[in-house]
Amino acid sequence: MQPADKTRNLKLLLQYDGTPFAGWQRQPQNRHQITVQGELEKVLCQVLQESIEVIGAGRTDTGVHAKMQVANFWTNSKISREKLQYVLNRLLPKEISIERVEEASKEFHARFSATARTYRYFLTTKKTALEHRYKAFYPYPNLSQEAMQRCADLIVGQHDFTSFCKAGTPLKNKICTVQKAQWKKIGTTFKFEITANRFLHSMVRLLVGTMLEVGRGTLTVSDFKRIFAAKDVRLAGASAKPNGLFLWKVHYDTLHQEHIQQSEFEDSE
Question: Which CATH architecture has domain 115-247?
Answer without folding.
Answer: 2-Layer Sandwich (3.30)
